[in-house]
Design goal:
Blueprint: H1 3-8, E1 14-18, H2 23-27, H3 30-39, E2 44-49, H4 54-59, E3 66-69, H5 83-96, E4 100-103, E5 122-127, E6 141-143, H6 150-160, H7 176-183, H8 186-189, E7 196-200, H9 211-223, E8 227-230, H10 237-244, E9 252-253, H11 260-269, E10 272-276, H12 279-286, E11 291-295, H13 300-303, E12 311-315, H14 320-331
Parallel strand pairs: 1-2, 1-4, 2-3, 4-5, 5-6, 7-8, 7-10, 8-9, 10-11, 11-12
């Protein structure tokens, strides 16, 4: 019997996980979600997250049963706070009275004061080391471990609760719907597996490697006979266009033409991904797609792929030659 069952006196029936960040931040929690599901196979498990994460929940029915939209909280930058909606959200959570809510947002500085307001029988998570006032129960709140890989950080929390790990591997399930939707986009349907490379030059502005560097890498890979596919959202189209103008051969732009599942489908068939540190880098890791990822504001020892043979990490200060060399090394494996 684990700590949770001991505290509740029974197996929890309703569990909520709070993590309201971006795609990559959710993907690295999958090993922890897998451990949670294995420990409580019959429990109803909900994810409390940002509105976009409904798609994430739909993609992981093996681990998640419900999506609960999070309206924001003071101090969290990802979602503007609407006091009326936040109040209603807290009222709804209190009425539902979950058996367990696990805080997986981070060290808890911002969100731990919210945890008691959720009305659960038991809450758990990390608290900032040296600030015990953020620890509501010493048996279920652990000091936040610095300098740990994010995947292992979440697994350590599961272990602290008495839930054994079920592997560190990421997952990104692909569906028949993904294949059907991909077949409806001419540029995607015509791609020959393993004969193209994906270049993803977009992302948060602070994390973007120079467009000219991406173009140099794309030109070098095109000289090796690979077709070039540039991925990104519709809002990243200007970035992609600037990269395209510096290419010596035509490239396919998928800016705004793919949803989350289609991006996964494209990455599952590519020979290589070259990207800034964005959500697509974690999709590539989950799909075992070779990649070279450029890191700037985040640290690869905390956020990079665990398999450093299949995936290579470089810094933002590295030039295009370094990335080209790493790309050729991965492709020659």
């Amino acid at each position: 019997m684990n700590k949770i069952e001991n505290a509740l006196g029974e197996v929890p029936q309703n569990i909520a996980v709070f993590r309201a960040i971006k795609l990559g931040d959710l993907l690295v929690t999958v090993p922890a979600l897998r451990a949670l599901r294995r420990a409580f196979p019959k429990a109803h498990i909900a994810l409390i997250s940002l509105p976009w994460a409904q798609d994430f929940v739909n993609r992981f029915p093996a681990y998640l049963d419900e999506f609960i939209s999070f309206p924001g909280w003071p101090g969290l930058p990802e979602q503007p706070v609407d006091p009326a909606k936040t109040t209603e959200f807290l009222r709804m959570m209190q009425q539902r009275a979950f058996d367990l809510v696990i805080q997986m947002q981070g060290n808890g500085t911002c969100v731990n004061p919210m945890m008691p307001l959720l009305g659960a029988r038991l809450t758990a998570g990390y608290y900032p080391a040296g600030l015990p006032q953020y620890r509501f129960d010493e048996n279920f709140y652990r000091a936040y471990p610095e300098n740990q890989h994010e995947i292992r950080r979440h697994l350590q929390l599961m272990d602290y609760l008495g839930l054994p790990a079920q592997g560190e591997e990421l997952e990104f399930p692909l569906t028949e719907t993904d294949t059907e939707r991909a077949s409806q986009v001419d540029e995607v349907a015509g791609l020959e597996p393993r004969r193209y490379v994906c270049i993803h030059p977009g992302g948060i502005s602070a994390r973007r490697w120079p467009e000219s560097h991406f173009a140099q890498v794309a030109n070098a890979l095109a000289e090796q006979g690979y077709s070039i596919v540039i991925t990104g959202t519709a809002t990243e189209a200007p970035i992609i266009e600037r990269v395209q103008r510096q290419l010596r051969t035509p490239a396919i732009s998928l800016a705004g033409k793919t949803d989350l599942g289609m991006v996964g489908w494209v990455l599952s068939r590519t020979a290589l991904l070259v990207s800034n540190d964005t959500g697509v880098s974690h999709i590539a890791s989950a799909l075992r797609t070779p990649s070279v990822i450029i890191y700037s504001t985040s640290r690869p020892d905390e956020w990079g792929p665990l398999n450093r043979q299949l995936h290579r990490a470089v810094g933002e200060a590295d030039d295009a030659r370094r990335v080209i060399d790493e790309a050729m090394s991965v492709l020659s494996r």
